[in-house]
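Sequence of Hydrolase, haloacid dehalogenase-like family protein (Streptococcus criceti HS-6).
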Amino acid sequence: MQIIFSDIDGTLLNKDHQVTPATARSIKLCVDKGLYFVPVSARMPEAIRPIIDNIGISSPIIAYNGALIQAQDGTVVDSKTIAMPEVLSVCHTVENLGQDLAWNIYSYSDWYSSHQGHDLVHNEEVVVDLESQVADLEQLASLKEAHKVLVMCPPNRTDQVLQALKQGYPDLSIAKSAAHLIEVMAAGIDKGQAVKTLADYYRVPITETLAFGDNYNDLEMLETVGYGVLMGNAPKALQNRIGKVTLDHNHDGIAKVLQEEIL
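Predicted 3D structure, token representation.
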């Protein structure tokens, strides 16, 4: 194996949003052997880098589920964005759907939110240990593009909002990523295509890659790489489909596989 890809939340991080010491140690040993370790996440780059820094390595990153790919030296390998007029239109639609919703716009390393006081925005800030920049849509009109719009909803309204956005914007990729979250991105973005793009960039055969994931948005990645492994906390239906399952994210599932397959 030459590249190890890993989802972050529910995979690399445990329930306390930490990388366990055993997992960090195993990853560092693999990197010391010359392998690349690549986090793959819906998170923005600034919410990924501190995790890598805490492990004690440098690495390429795949952010926004593949909409932004950066090499180890920070070079942008690939960037797929939504033009700002369409981003603003999506956010206006969200505002018209109710004051209990919040929009968030992500562009490269910047995160703009409709209001920090919203409970769901605050919760996201706590999870990723970052603060959003409060802005109104007029202020953001000068931006050229964005990688993602994240819509936050009360869970009992998410499906209704999802349907409205899908009907209004059929050319965008729109999906529910949690009970209270809807992600809006350019069409054709998935983790499977992203890992192939980065492997090609480093001239590594896809058969020489390994990936860890825990949920349905990891499926394309797990089926693209040479060796895909699900965490023990993944849904049972997904475990049955992938077949290769390790321990859960609270019990060093990544470390177990790395010790058995690489170290």
